[in-house]
Design brief:
The structure is a single chain. By secondary structure, the chain is α+β, with helices and mostly antiparallel strands. Among the domains are: 13-56 and 145-228, Probable tRNA modification gtpase trme, domain 1 (Gyrase A, domain 2, 2-Layer Sandwich); 274-352, Elongation Factor Tu (Ef-tu), domain 3. It is 20% helix and 34% strand. The chain contains eight helices and 19 strands. The chain has helices spanning 13-18, 38-47, 67-74, 122-131, 156-160, 202-211, 219-228, 262-271; strands spanning 22-26, 29-34, 50-53, 58-63, 86-93, 99-109, 112-117, 138-141, 146-152, 170-175, 178-183, 192-198, 215-217, 275-282, 293-294, 298-305, 312-319, 328-333, 336-343. The strands form four sheets. It has a six-stranded mixed β-sheet with strand order 10-11-12-9-3-13. A six-stranded antiparallel β-sheet has the order 15-16-17-14-19-18. A five-stranded antiparallel β-sheet has the order 5-6-7-4-8, covered by helices on one side. Strand 1 and strand 2 form a beta hairpin.
């Protein structure tokens, strides 16, 4: 997509330009892909603290006495496991068990939920839920009112001056005078949080987080970080044509309850998937990229250079018989066969 006035801007757009970020089109938005460079930004998150503008993500409020009933029938995970102040990773699935979106559901109150959805799926997720509203439930898209900053890294909570908290919990507080919802979630595999605030407060919050020592990071580092820990990217590794079981996301599906597509997922689990999403590392010098064929009928869905391991790493679908760790794979890297090896997830794990 060419850069044009039709691209949307987050409330922090001017800050990114002032910092010299390289801006690129992403999911209809003009977003920073990097500031200094991907590798130092990646390593800042692994060793200290980095901050990402993820205000392009969508926020949907679902409220009412039957909000739970609507979401329990639409989402794969079991919302009844949540108390107010808790969150969970879950999937919005279609009638074929395909993944419309992967998202985080936050239980705000007894009859109130917040869903944070992928930017590219905001409209689809909203329309899907809105069409299925039941009496006593109301779905609202509040994305334009919100800004979201992801502060990630082993020193992120310390730098923000926040108390310890368990993963997938959230609380309201203020940081340097800005009211925020502190969500103990993230997409990097590191400790940290995602800070939700009103869009008009985004610049003040961003400035405060940078003042506290977090390094500004772009989409490039966000992608390599999530790939090292094998978090799937919707549109690459998962999508409406992929099922949760084959993608290794069965743990996010409560197959004992009824939700859209559950019969298909039960059948795939019972029979065993024909293919599986695996993690791999390159055994030869090469960088895997999405779309590259894997011998035997597989395909790379995500691939890059790992800044921490300094080798090529990736995710891809392979026939189930090739999915065991230590299985040798051959990947067609620009017309040249290159050896790779299936590894257990995550590819990168911190050594304490």
């Amino acid at each position: 997509m060419p850069m044009s006035a039709t691209l949307l801007h987050t409330p922090l757009h001017d800050r990114h330009v002032e910092l010299g970020a390289r801006m690129v089109p992403f999911a209809g938005w003009e977003m920073p892909v990097q500031y200094e460079a991907v590798i130092p930004e990646h390593r800042a998150v692994r060793t200290d603290a980095g901050v990402f503008d993820v205000s392009h993500m969508g926020e949907l409020e679902v409220e009412g006495p039957h909000a739970r009933d609507l979401l329990q029938s639409a989402l794969s995970n079991d919302l009844d496991r949540l108390e107010p102040g808790q969150a969970q990773y879950t999937l919005l699935t279609n009638e074929d068990g395909g993944i419309i979106d992967d998202l985080i559901a936050y239980r705000v109150g007894e009859c109130s939920y917040l869903l944070v959805v992928n930017a590219s799926n905001r409209e689809n997720a909203y329309a899907w839920l809105k069409e299925r509203e039941v009496r006593g439930s109301d779905v609202r898209d509040v994305s334009d009112d919100c800004a979201l900053l992801a502060v990630q890294g082993p020193r992120s909570i310390e730098r923000l001056g926040l108390p310890p908290a368990r993963p997938f919990t959230f609380a309201e507080t203020s940081i340097d005078g800005v009211e925020v919802m502190v969500n103990r979630t993230g997409y990097t595999g590191e400790d940290g949080c995602e800070l939700l605030c009103m869009s008009e407060d985004a610049v003040r919050l961003w400035d405060a987080v940078l003042e506290r020592g977090a390094v500004p990071c772009g989409l490039g580092a966000r992608d390599t970080l999530r790939l090292e820990v094998c978090y799937p990217l919707h549109g690459n590794d998962i999508g409406p044509d992929t099922d949760a079981i084959s993608a290794g996301l069965g743990w996010a599906c409560a197959l004992g309850k009824e939700f859209e597509g559950v019969e298909v997922l039960r059948r795939v689990k019972a029979n065993g998937p024909e293919r599986r999403l695996v993690a791999f590392v390159m055994e030869e010098k090469a960088i895997p990229r999405p779309g590259m064929p894997i011998d035997g009928g597989g395909e790379v869905t995500s691939g890059s250079h790992s800044p921490m391991l300094e080798i090529g790493v990736g995710l891809g679908y392979v026939p189930a018989g090739q999915a065991q760790p230590d299985t040798e794979l051959t990947i067609d890297v620009r017309g040249r066969p290159r050896r790779a090896r299936v590894v257990r997830k995550p590819i990168y794990k911190r050594e304490d």
